[in-house]
Amino acid sequence: MGCGVSAFTGLGRGGRSSVTRLASEEGASKGSLSPFTSPMAYAVLNWGFTEPRFSSRYNYSKENGTFTCKKCGNELYRSDDKYDSGSGWPSFTSAVVEGESSNVEKKPRDATGRFEIVCKSCGGHLGHVFPDGPSKAKGGTGWRHCVNGAALDFSKKTSDE
């Protein structure tokens, strides 16, 4: 039920500090690492890394609102579509649809047979989608969008909305 290979697999003894150092160096050299973006978010969005299971606060969030792309601010998911899949990553039954198309793009299967999902606006890696989500009979779509919380920001819905 996982989302993918951990961001730290294959990094040797450096682990998390290697990701931090590499993301900080690349972001600084390209001028694209916002002071508000963590090295993990940079590694997930730009390199396709996967954050460790159960590490995102959004995995546990039950607040009402909208999840947006941390890289570009594109509206991606609504809390109404979020559910606890037990996978260790925030999971959603579907993405926000504007007009006739989704704000999340599903890429063709990769070598492992998974479908990668990216932000349709900026191409930032979000996670993967699997055909094991809640069925339509249970109010779902049959798909599970398994998303790295590091790729998301959250806007709480106010009572006026």
How would you characterize the overall build of this protein?
The protein is of the alpha+beta class and 161 residues long. It has one domain: Peptide methionine sulfoxide reductase (Metal Binding Protein, Guanine Nucleotide Exchange Factor, Chain A, Beta Complex), CATH 2.170.150.20. The chain is 16% helix and 27% strand. The protein is built from two helices and eleven strands, in the order ααβββββββββββ. It has helices at residues 15-30, 39-47, and strands at 65-69, 75-78, 82-83, 91-92, 97-98, 101-102, 104-109, 115-119, 125-130, 144-147, 152-156. Strands 3-4-10-9-8-7 form a six-stranded antiparallel β-sheet. A hairpin with a 5-residue loop joins β1 and β2 (75-78). α1 (15-30) crosses α2 (39-47). The longest helix is centred in the first third of the chain and has 16 residues, at 15-30. The protein is globular, with a radius of gyration of 15 Å. The N and C termini lie far apart (35 Å). Residues 4-14 have low confidence and may be disordered. Its EC number is 1.8.4.12. Belongs to the MsrB Met sulfoxide reductase family. One of its GO terms (biological process) is protein repair. This is Peptide-methionine (R)-S-oxide reductase.
Q: Give the CA-based shape.
A: globular
Per the CATH scheme, the topology name is: Metal Binding Protein, Guanine Nucleotide Exchange Factor, Chain A
Give the strand content: 25-35%
Flag low-confidence runs: 4-14
* Rg from Cα: 15 Å
Order of helices and strands: HHEEEEEEEEEEE
What's the N-to-C terminus distance? 35 Å
**Major beta sheet, strand line-up:** 3-4-10-9-8-7
Helix and strand composition category: alpha+beta
CATH superfamily: Peptide methionine sulfoxide reductase
What can be said about the biggest beta sheet? 6 strands, antiparallel
Range of helix content: 10-25%
**Number of helical segments with 4 or more residues:** 2
User: What is the domain total for the residues?
Assistant: 1
Known CATH architecture: Beta Complex
By DSSP, the count of extended strands is 11
Provide the CATH top-level class.
Mainly Beta
Mean pLDDT: 84
